[in-house]
Structures are given as structure tokens and as C-alpha cells.
Amino acid sequence: MPIFAGMYPPEARTVVVLGASPNPDRYSYMAVQRLNSAGFSVIPVGLRPGLADGIPIHTDRPVPQHVDTVTLYIGPANQKDWKDYLFSLRPARVIFNPGTDNPALWNELLEAGIEPVEACTLVMLSTGTF
Asked: Which residues pair with 95 in a beta bridge?
């Protein structure tokens, strides 16, 4: 079970959705929507400006304090462009959603003391294990 599941109220937990999209048909958009509905502090970050569930998508790579979770929606081929940013967030955990698996990044996260999780954010939210 993830280290944060049930430990803190959602509104006290900041989640960065990395690879956020303004397209409501994309899973990253749905993740922003469901995290927002569940009361989490959600920061969508992506390549294209727009809104995800009414929240502005940051293209400037903000570095908020106290990021609990980064949920990853960027494929392995493009992750190298985001790696420095990901580590600058100092999250407690990174969720590798389906299609984002990257063993090298996984090992780098472990070495940095960041918990990697192979899971689906949408499933975790629906089962109460987020």
C-alpha cells in the first residue's frame, strides 16, 4: 500500500500530474478531474497550455513545496526531458501509470529515496488506495 494512503486528508496533499492534457478523453485529464474531485491539491503540468478540469495546465514547470506525489503520464522516450524537473520536485513517490514504465528511472528514484509505484492513478483513486 502506498505510504500516503489514508495518512493525511486529501486537501493536505499536493499531487503533480506530469503530462497533463487539456483533452478530456486523455487519462491525464481524467486523473486531474478525479484528484480534484477527491479534494487533492492538484498541479497539472504539460506541454500545451489549457485547462484540465478547470485548472490551468502549467507549461513553465513550477516547483511547489511539499509535493507528495507525482503521477506520470509521459512515456519513457520523453521522460529524459522531464527528469531534472521531476527530481527538483522532491516527491515522496512517483506513480508510473500504464505505458510509462522505465526501469532506469525507477532505479534512480529508489537511489534518491523516492518511492516508485507501478500502478494506475485512476484505479488507485477508485479503490481508495491512492
From this structure: 71, 117
CA–chain centroid gap for 75, Å, is 13
**In the chain, domain spans:** 11-100+112-127
Q: Please say whether the beta carbons of 48 and 118 come within 8 A.
A: no
pLDDT digits 0-9 by tens, 77-90? 999 999 999 999 99
Tell me: the pLDDT tens digits for 40-70?
999 999 999 999 999 999 999 999 989 999 9
Three-state DSSP at 36 gives: helix
Phi-psi region of 80 (alpha: psi -120 to 50; beta: other; left: phi over 0): alpha
Strands 115-118 and 93-96: parallel
CATH fold label, 11-100+112-127 = Rossmann fold (3.40.50)
